[in-house]
Amino acid sequence: MAKILLVEDDLTFAQMLLVFLQKHGHKVTSAQNVSSGLKLLEQHTFELLLLDYRLTDGTGLDVLAKTRDMGLSIPAIMMTSFNDVRTAVKAMRLGAFDYITKPVNPDELIMIMGHALANKTLAAELSEGPAFITGNSPQSVKLHDHIDLVAPTDMAVMIQGESGTGKEYVARMIHRQSKRSAKPFVAIDCGALSKDLASSELFGHVKGAFTGAIADKKGVFEWAEGGTLFMDEVGNLEYDVQVKLLRALQEKVIQPIGSNKNIPVNVRIITATNDDLLNSVGQGHFRQDLYHRINEFKIQLSPLRARGNDIDIFIKYFIQTANAELGRKVAGVSPEAKQALHKYDWPGNLRELNNVIKRMVLLTDGDIADVEALPDEMLFANPGNTASESDLKAQNEANEKNLIQKALHQVKYNKSKAAKLLNIDRKTLYSKIERYGLDN
User: Which of 254, 258, 290, 431 could cross-link with 246 by S-S, CB 3.0 to 4.6 Å?
Assistant: First the structure.
């Protein structure tokens, strides 16, 4: 029925699972660790991933993250003996379809696999980024004109805009309209790269290059060969990594850590930033020569609140995708709900709108989603709301979300600085960012 990659280091459990799945008609290929799993992904095509969390050379999240970096859109199910909510949240953030704890219930696994395979087309569409929605506002018309102009070229594009405005969608659209569309689109979040591992993630390393380098590893430049490399939050790269990146772009070669060999690369660069990097250049945090190298053409994305009635187009689209994902048949929103959606200022932009609409669809049994399905903080943010002013919990949550938004904006979405500013630890901040749909 389906080609499945199983990555599991418990040989006894892996063999039991392999036999069980084969009896149900699936073709299963197994690996015992991250490195062998990634090699199989390079060599074969799979329709579903079953990933153990704790592996000898990393975690199942490493496999999941790398599949996304490779531009693959394969639904994944995480398995673990550790019932850790934080792990589940992280897995979902990286695009896991579902999360199951050991000992695995066979019927539950088959049911989840069925849902994952049934939603494979939708999962692939969401992972690759849906066709960017064309609005009617002057900003939307200008945006698509610029995409049409720059896509066929090999110019380095910088996309600037607030969190949630669709920077990666724009990058994918440029790639799809380019001469490189048949080659990989690889995305990497520079904000998530540690100082010690950034060079390895970008340029790769050879076995023994440093402690923990137990095998050769390709960097994203090699994964994106012939295609497009999208570098989100590029302003967060450390200065020494910027130097290496500039050399790679100018000389079109990379040197893996620990290697004396230069590897030619042919990659188009698209970068994204929440902030104007000129400020970082002026403060000496970002190299001016690199700035000009990656900014051959800039695309500025407008926030949702500045795009007028485009929001109606997005509402309709997100209802359709939520219906398909959740098995609902919501036709639209009530006039009162639409008024509330229009009045809200959308600090999280399209990402926040998508989350809100999905929540409304989930909470709606009938054809029309009403104001009762809106999050409490949105009701408090709008005049004439139906929530009680004595609802202290909802008011506190609205105030908390507002404080976190302001702190993130103040420190340009540097989460470590935001946590320090708010006097909370990073884990608590990440949890609240996830809860309020403020993820950058």
Answer: 290
